[in-house]
Amino acid sequence: MHAAHRVAAALLGAVAALALIGQFRMPLTSDVAFHLDAARRMLDGAVPYRDVAAPETPFVFWASVPAAGAGGGGPFAGTVFRCMVVGLVLAVLALVWQVTRAAPVLRAGYVLMALALPVWYFGTPEHLAFVLLVPYVALAVARLEGEEGSTGVAVGAGALAAAGVALEPALAVVPLAVLALEAWLARSARVVSAPEHVALGAALAVAVAVAVVAVPELLETGPGLWSAWRALPRPSIGTLLTGDIHVWVVWFALGAALVFGRTVAPRRRIAVLAAVTAAGLAAALLQRSGDGPDLFPAAAFAVVLLLALAVAAPIGRSRLVALRRVTAALL
């Protein structure tokens, strides 16, 4: 690692550490607090979708059970849960590190959006899903840039992506976007046989089977619960596309990728990040939700995309290079 890279990594680590100190001093977001309370009630015998009504998958509640149990149902459960999330982020970083040797900007973007910048969304299912999807996206970038990871790393990335989708099913469009882009660039559907895609499909099948068998109420009362949730007033598509700062970040990043994507190298990295950013926005639109948490994955991938554009090597036209630098300054 070059000296400049070591300095950048140290600064990034310091920023993340300072942000985490503030994170542990903040109150829990209402979603996380509700999930911890639901997990505590489940430990006392409550059954999801019968005694605990929420339009979430069972995995969201199960993810909070260890913290609820260790915290004894009191405020300490929140601290335990935050420590669990930090542990997950760092464990996933170890996997991300292995597939981003040629793309350190992806490491920086991951640390920023997984540790330093989630703030109010820290520990929400959307934040956790973003964390779990990043290795899959980073592996796609590595493969399209000629890097080959081990089969074990690929299987791990696919399994983690499946866990992310199990938490937030609407985000299934993210791996679908990655797979579609890979197939289009390869001009072949045979890419579906790559270990990460096979592991993703197999792990998702297992997750669905576990959820249905362990919580039969999911099929009995779950559909009615989701229908009631969808019947609530929703913002219009126009409002969803323009009315929130998270969406502005997404449009800014996608616009920058459209304008500057052909003037930088490597282009395929930008293409993957633009695809998953757009897919994250599509996931929020599918839910017809304008809430910040639902838009967080799209905004997080958008920030990583902007970082990648900011540090990419310029190709050709100096005027566009200058405009890209202005865009980077606006970041």
Total strand segments: 2
Helix content: over 70%
Cα distance, first to last residue?
26 Å
* Average pLDDT, all residues: 86
Biggest sheet overview: 2 strands, antiparallel
Give the strand line-up of the largest sheet: 1-2
Range of strand content: under 5%
Count, helices: 16
Question: What is the CA-atom radius of gyration, in angstroms?
Answer: 20 Å
Low-confidence stretches: none
Structure report:
By secondary structure, this protein is mainly α. The protein has 16 helices and 2 strands. It has helices at residues 3-25, 30-43, 58-70, 76-99, 104-116, 125-144, 151-167, 173-186, 195-214, 217-220, 222-230, 237-242, 245-260, 267-286, 292-311, 318-330, and strands at 264-265, 313-314. The chain has a two-stranded antiparallel ribbon with strand order 1-2. The chain is globular.
Break the fold down into its secondary structure elements and pairings.
Layout: H1 3-25, H2 30-43, H3 58-70, H4 76-99, H5 104-116, H6 125-144, H7 151-167, H8 173-186, H9 195-214, H10 217-220, H11 222-230, H12 237-242, H13 245-260, E1 264-265, H14 267-286, H15 292-311, E2 313-314, H16 318-330
Antiparallel strand pairs: 1-2
List keywords for this structure.
16 helices; two-stranded antiparallel ribbon; single chain; 331 residues; 2 strands; 1% strand; mainly alpha
